[in-house]
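seq as requested:
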Amino acid sequence: MKKLYIVRHGQTDWNVQKLLQGKTDIELNEEGIKQAKELAKVIDLDKIDICICSPLKRTRKTAELIVGDKVPIVYDELVLERDFGNYEGNPIIFDLIAKQWDYKINDREEGIEPVQDCLKRAKKFLNKINNEYKNKNILIVSHGSFIKALHFNLIGYNENTDLLSFNPKNALIYEYEIE
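struct tokens:
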């Protein structure tokens, strides 16, 4: 049995403005830096063997502030945020979000990474870490939508699952045990 500690990056200005970030490379704001530093005080790094992080600035900075030089950080494109295509930088609209997370619609309009593809990418990542990091406790620093896809791969889902029922918050730890 090993543990996954999954953390969404700290706050950005676009989080505050309720804009879709996706793969747009946004920095942490002052609050986001503070959140990551606070998280570093409560996470037990002695229990973590490796940190796997998205290569975007907001996740890199969050990971660096949490682990410092105590845990090796590996950057992996598989844990990048979901691509929201032409909607990135625009206000978050609930009807659009509901459509993007409807498994049956599997929206790919405007360059969006379809939800089924994001879920498959999360499954591919879980298979990769199961093969490469057997019996290692892993800290994953990623993004809201990708963490949502990881969560549902870990607990299970089907085409009728309400994928909007889990919404990871900035700079909180989500803990999972996996075999």
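The chain has a mean pLDDT of 95.
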